[in-house]
Write a structure and sequence with these properties.
This protein has 345 residues and is of the alpha/beta class. It folds into 2 domains: 4-190 and 230-254, 3-Layer(aba) Sandwich (Rossmann fold), CATH 3.40.50.720; 197-228 and 259-295 and 313-336, Alpha-Beta Complex (UDP-galactose 4-epimerase, domain 1). It is 41% helix and 14% strand. It has 11 helices and 13 strands. The chain has helices spanning 13-24, 39-47, 61-71, 87-90, 92-114, 159-178, 200-212, 233-243, 262-272, 301-307, 315-336; strands spanning 4-8, 28-33, 52-55, 75-78, 130-136, 182-187, 190-191, 219-221, 227-228, 231-232, 252-254, 260-261, 281-283. The strands form 4 sheets. The chain has a 7-stranded parallel sheet with strand order 3-2-1-4-5-6-11, with helices on both faces. Strands 7-10 form a two-stranded parallel ribbon. A two-stranded parallel ribbon has the order 8-13. α5 packs parallel to α6 (159-178) and α7 (200-212) packs parallel to α9 (262-272). It binds NADP nicotinamide-adenine-dinucleotide phosphate (NAP) and ligand F7E. NADP nicotinamide-adenine-dinucleotide phosphate binds next to α1 and β5.
């Protein structure tokens, strides 16, 4: 019989790649969707017609218990979150509720449906539903060491990072308290042509496409010196799946181990279309964060040795892929109008 997976955050970047990966591996995949007439549900069901949906919200405990009870998944991937870091200074309570307490609600739903009570001895029920938590390198914040690994001290710099740290710790606590098969993937920044337009690599690739076609002239950015370890989302969802296939649950850092600054990303993207970035980029101090994460770089040796995971797409290829995709989309808009856009995502 095929395995069944439930994904929260299925309408997001990672949810879409993970659903595709699991379906191609023979899974029956259910996605939790929130809200009334969520337009992103239409978008993903066009992309992945085999995907099934169930209503629910990480803010609503009852809806999560019902969803887990109805789907009876073998694996739950908790990807749902408010994932844009600056939003967490604007609405810290909401972000804490969704990204922090939302994890606890999802764990409680799994615990209740599995019939687990206290005692860390692993019972059959404890391993029945395996749980993946989308932890983040943002938890390392003001980094205690470089590169960062599973044991690096957490020092989050944003309410987003603080909420993710709670989700991380509570997942480990359910593993230790109930013997639940719960893992955290501490994923470093990962991007794709499906990335939200608010995140810096996609903001750059979209602007480069518009500027190349003469539809825009300037790109406003904040801190160009920030350094990130950027990978491809399609590579990272393979790691999520592998984490839930191990005999014992554990936590894993996932990244490429390569560091690039925002300036590098801008230079590369403009170079790709034959333009000089310095003629187009302007600095907007309003885009600089109240507390910045200056540098992130993953030591993924644990994931590489234990999971056999390797990234396949490097930074230059990733930026090329994103710029090409946005150029193709921008050309469509220019030639046929907005009605044809979003056909691929
Ligand atoms: P994304 O594209 O922003 O997707 C976020 C998803 O969460 C959307 O499907 C959204 O659904 C859903 N969501 C938001 N609020 C919700 C709520 N109250 N209840 C249920 N679902 C809700 O994010 P992503 O890049 O795919 O990231 C996936 C996860 O990995 C997130 O938890 C993120 O924090 C984490 N992460 C991402 C990265 C990265 O670089 N991408 C790195 C480390 C960790 P709607 O359609 O309803 O808005
Ligand atoms: O910023 C700098 C900004 O918003 C990257 C999320 O997926 O990864 C992501 O969080 C860097 C920061 O991603 C602009 O200050 C400069 O230093 O693309 P970002 P993020 O904040 O690192 C982590 C791992 C997650 O978990 C999150 O969910 O780029 N930067 N100028 C800018 N950033 C943005 N967005 N816009 C700018 O104009």
């Amino acid at each position: 019989m095929s395995k069944r997976a439930l994904i929260t955050g299925v309408t997001g970047q990672d949810g879409s790649y993970l659903a595709e990966h699991l379906i191609s591996s023979g899974y029956e995949v259910w996605g939790l969707v929130r809200g009334q007439a969520n337009p992103r549900k239409d978008r993903i069901s066009r992309l992945i017609p085999e995907l099934r949906f169930i209503d629910g919200d990480l803010m609503d405990q009852g809806s999560l218990v019902s969803a887990v009870d109805l789907v009876q998944p073998d694996e739950v991937y908790n990807l749902g979150a408010i994932s844009f870091v600056p939003m967490s200074w604007q609405q810290p309570n909401l972000v804490t509720e969704v990204n922090g307490n939302g994890v606890l609600r999802m764990l409680e739903a799994v615990r209740m449906v599995s019939g687990l009570s206290g005692g860390s001895a692993r019972s059959e029920a404890a391993g029945r539903i395996r749980f993946y938590q989308a932890s983040s390198s943002e938890m390392f914040g003001m980094v205690a060491e470089t590169p960062q690994r599973e044991t690096t001290l957490l020092h989050p710099r944003s309410p987003y990072g603080v909420a993710k740290a709670f989700g991380h710790h509570i997942t480990r606590n359910y593993r230790e308290s109930y013997g639940m098969y719960g893992v955290s993937g501490i994923l470093f920044n990962h991007e794709s042509p499906r990335r939200g337009a608010e995140f810096v690599p996609r903001k750059i690739s979209l602007a480069v496409a518009q500027i190349k076609l003469g539809l825009q002239d300037k790109l406003s950015l904040g801190n160009l010196d920030a350094v990130r370890d950027w990978g491809f989302a399609g590579d990272y969802v393979r790691a999520m799946h592998l984490m839930l296939q191990q005999e014992e649950p554990g936590d894993y850092v996932v990244g490429t181990g390569q560091m690039h600054s925002v300036r590098d990303a801008v230079r590369l993207a403009f170079e790709y279309v034959g333009l000089d970035w310095e003629e187009h980029v302007v600095i907007d101090p309003a885009l600089v964060r109240p507390a910045e994460v200056e540098i992130l770089c993953a030591d993924s040796s644990h994931a590489r040795t234990r999971l056999g995971w390797e990234p396949e797409v490097d930074f230059a290829e990733l930026m090329r892929m994103m710029v090409e995709s946005d150029l193709a989309e921008a050309r469509l808009v220019r030639e046929h109008g907005a009605a044809l856009t979003g056909a691929r995502w």
